[in-house]
């Protein structure tokens, strides 16, 4: 959030659906099937930060050529996690530059001996620029810290008797520049009476910590050499029938057949088809509804795809199953509709941010968050301010939590952040977001930026306007009596200008830094502003515990 009024732009899915087709290859989530295996590489990796003045020692000494331990001391680094808060080395907390990860892996023999098997290395995310070597061979590069990337490494692991031994080296640079997403600047401080030679700081223009590292899972998975590369699903409703439109991309063979089956939650066949594209009609379909909008929300079907390809050694089969929710999304001048009914976004802005692990993916935290969401009666959240882990969206599909899926377009505050290079990077990231998340029924909007230069004449090109407002905090400080009038003026002005639905995407005031609890103690806490008690949260009537009263609080229980 920036000071003053700003806008988080959001656009509907159908407008960007085609963007994913511009990228080379699909990005299906790695799922096991009769034809696919996966090997998790989560756990402890060897780690080293390059503290040299130019941050280039690792490249100059070619650390990727041999095991990382042979070129100097290493730390144990858990993956997934951010590296910033794991060590007791204070330099890592705000480190800017290249860090190096390494993991040695033993592959199953069948992966290395069966030439009809394709082996893929997939990195869930590496913030922000990554270079990957496999056994010292430069294999893959990727820019952007919150999205997956992968490479076919079959030719590196199917080459001889030692091919089952794999050494994966990943160098990651977390530097933010005017053309990265999110952007930032590097400031060199040259006053030698205050700063050592070459001293610099990373300036950011957003209000969350720039955690970095291998923050999501790294894994290996296999497919046949002829395989299902991508699936795109859109859904609709016609009278009482659900419509599932599918488009399937196949790689590795031009001679193949595709069978498509749609199964309900009880594993019963409800529709089937063939070919790379088609439409499945489901009479009496159960629709995917948001939480608290239907007695059985979040109903999911399973789309089973079977590929049979003709290869020179003989026929090859590949199987992939995609969860599918049948639902429609539309907007009018004043309403957001899901399945033709008005939907009110009642939810939160989340962050992937926690003690010790930083932005590292963590299942216990994720499940706790979803229990909190349902406890609150929330039905939606925005992925402020970057795409979240794929597993988060899968949980949303299962729980009926609606998602505004936001790209890392945050902190676009300076004129130098708006240029053609930045635009191309922004478009590429949006394409990657859509390619990854297009099939999630929970995702109903793509947010293309948070608080950009909203004075520009750009709002006509979006479907929904999201407003971030902090009345009685950033201005007219403490005058709560003005909020209603100023908010009414804000909404009327935006609506009069654009006639589009409006979401209040952020609001509020200062909180107690670091205070995050849900116990009875929290629910009876006082919140103070400049020494004045501005609100008091009463303990719920069902709480039977009696914590000692806050000595600073005039309202004792």
UniProtKB/TrEMBL annotation:
GO CC aspect terms: extracellular space; lysosome
Broad class of enzyme this protein falls into: hydrolase
GO molecular function per UniProt: beta-glucuronidase activity; carbohydrate binding; signaling receptor binding
Activity regulation field: Inhibited by L-aspartic acid.
Main location, first listed in the record: other
Chemical reaction(s) catalysed: a beta-D-glucuronoside + H2O = D-glucuronate + an alcohol
Gene3D superfamilies the UniProt entry points to: Galactose-binding domain-like (2.60.120.260), Glycosidases (3.20.20.80), Immunoglobulins (2.60.40.10)
Biological process (GO), any one: carbohydrate metabolic process
Residue ranges constituting the Glycoside hydrolase family 2 immunoglobulin-like beta-sandwich domain according to the UniProt record: 226-327
Domain Glycoside hydrolase family 2 catalytic span(s) in chain numbering: 329-453, 458-517
InterPro entries named among the record's database cross-references: Beta-gal/glucu_dom_sf, Galactose-bd-like_sf, GH, Glyco_hydro_2, Glyco_hydro_2_AS, Glyco_hydro_2_cat, Glyco_hydro_2_CS, Glyco_hydro_2_N
Keyword set, alphabetical order: Glycosidase, Hydrolase, Lysosome, Signal
Domain Glycosyl hydrolases family 2 sugar binding residue range list: 39-224
Signal peptide: 1-22
UniProt-listed Enzyme Commission number(s): 3.2.1.31
Localization (cell): Lysosome
SUBUNIT field: Homotetramer.
Role noted for this protein: Plays an important role in the degradation of dermatan and keratan sulfates.
Sequence similarity: Belongs to the glycosyl hydrolase 2 family.
Name of the protein in its database record: Beta-glucuronidase
Native source organism of the sequence: Cercocebus atys (Sooty mangabey)
């Amino acid at each position: 959030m920036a000071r003053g009024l700003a806008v988080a732009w959001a656009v509907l899915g159908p407008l960007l659906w085609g963007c994913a087709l511009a990228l080379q290859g699909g990005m299906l989530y790695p799922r096991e099937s009769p034809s696919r295996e996966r090997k998790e590489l989560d756990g402890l990796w060897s780690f080293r930060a390059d503290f040299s003045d130019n941050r280039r020692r690792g490249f100059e000494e070619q650390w990727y050529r041999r095991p990382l331990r042979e070129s100097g001391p290493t730390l144990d680094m858990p993956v997934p996690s951010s590296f910033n808060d794991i060590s007791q080395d204070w330099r890592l907390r705000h480190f800017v530059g290249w860090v190096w990860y390494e993991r040695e892996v033993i592959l199953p023999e069948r992966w290395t001996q069966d030439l009809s098997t394709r082996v893929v290395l997939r990195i869930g995310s590496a913030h922000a620029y990554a270079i990957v070597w496999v056994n010292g061979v430069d294999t893959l590069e990727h820019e952007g810290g919150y999205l997956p990337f992968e490479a076919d490494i079959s030719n590196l692991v199917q080459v001889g008797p030692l091919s089952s031994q794999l050494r994966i080296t990943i160098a990651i640079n977390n530097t933010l520049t005017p053309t990265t997403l999110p952007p930032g600047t590097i400031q060199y401080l040259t006053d030698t009476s205050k700063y050592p030679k070459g001293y610099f700081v990373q300036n950011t223009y957003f209000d969350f910590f720039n955690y970095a590292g291998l923050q999501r899972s790294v894994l290996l998975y296999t497919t046949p050499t002829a395989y299902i590369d991508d699936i795109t699903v859109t859904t609709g409703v016609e009278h009482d029938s659900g419509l599932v439109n599918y488009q399937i991309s196949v790689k590795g063979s031009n001679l193949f057949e595709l069978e498509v089956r749609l199964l309900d939650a009880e594993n019963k066949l409800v529709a089937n088809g063939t070919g790379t594209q088609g439409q499945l009609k489901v009479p009496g379909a159960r629709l995917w509804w948001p939480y608290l909008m239907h007695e059985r929300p979040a109903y999911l079907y399973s789309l089973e795809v079977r590929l049979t390809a003709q290869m020179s050694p003989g026929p090859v089969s590949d199987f992939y199953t995609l969860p599918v929710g049948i639902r429609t999304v539309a907007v009018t001048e004043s309403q957001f509709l899901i399945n033709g009914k008005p939907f009110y976004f009642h939810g939160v802005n989340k962050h992937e941010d926690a003690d010790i692990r930083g932005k590292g993916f963590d299942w216990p935290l994720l499940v706790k968050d979803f229990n909190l969401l349902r406890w609150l009666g929330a039905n939606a959240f925005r992925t402020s301010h970057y795409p979240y882990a794929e597993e988060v969206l899968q949980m949303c599909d299962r729980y009926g939590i609606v998602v505004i899926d936001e790209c890392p377009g945050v902190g676009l505050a300076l004129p130098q952040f708006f240029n053609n290079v930045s635009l191309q990077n922004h478009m590429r990231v949006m394409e990657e977001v859509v390619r990854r998340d297009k099939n999630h029924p929970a995702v109903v909007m793509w947010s293309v930026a948070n608080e950009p230069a909203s004075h520009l004449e750009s709002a006509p090109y979006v479907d929904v306007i999201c407003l971030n407002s902090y009345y009685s905090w950033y201005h007219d400080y403490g005058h709560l009596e003005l909020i209603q009038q100023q908010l009414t003026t804000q909404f009327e002005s935006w609506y009069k200008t654009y006639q589009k639905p409006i979401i209040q995407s952020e609001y509020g005031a200062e909180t107690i830094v670091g205070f995050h609890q849900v116990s009875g103690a929290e629910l009876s806490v006082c919140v103070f502003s400049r020494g004045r008690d501005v609100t008091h949260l009463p303990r719920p009537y069902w709480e039977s515990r009696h914590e000692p009263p806050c000595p600073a609080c005039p309202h004792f229980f």
